[in-house]
Amino acid sequence: MVDAPFTAIERKINELAGMVTTLKKEKEDLASLLARRNAEVKELEGRAAELTKERNEIKSRVDAILARLEGIEL
Questions:
Q1: If pLDDT is split at 50, 70 and 90, which confidence band does 2 have?
Q2: What are the CA-CA distances from residue 50 to residues 36, 37, 38, 39 (Å)?
Q3: Which of 28, 40, 53, 64 is 20–30 Å from 13 (CA)?
Q4: What is the pLDDT of residues 6-57, one digit of tens each?
């Protein structure tokens, strides 16, 4: 009968060890996912910056064309 409490403790320790292993794996998976998402964010930020630059260049060209058209006397 003395073994029963030790068996229960051993079972609980084994369960906790399993939980720790599972949580470590989950943490690694989440860290990997976070790293991928961070890379995607950087890529999208770069693309957004490129598009903003392109939009500003187009706006400048359109403004220049409009200024030339305003200067034409009909």
A1: low
A2: 21, 20, 18, 17
A3: 28
A4: 899 999 999 999 999 999 999 999 999 999 999 999 999 999 999 999 999 9
CA distance 23 to 26: 5
Q: DSSP letter string over 8-54? A: HHHHHHHHHHHHHHHHHHHHHHHHHHHHHHHHHHHHHHHHHHHHHHH
Ramachandran angles phi, psi of 73, nearest 5° = -90, 130
| Whole-structure pTM value | 0.66
Rounded CA-CA distance 19/16 in Å is 5
Residue type (1 letter), 26: E
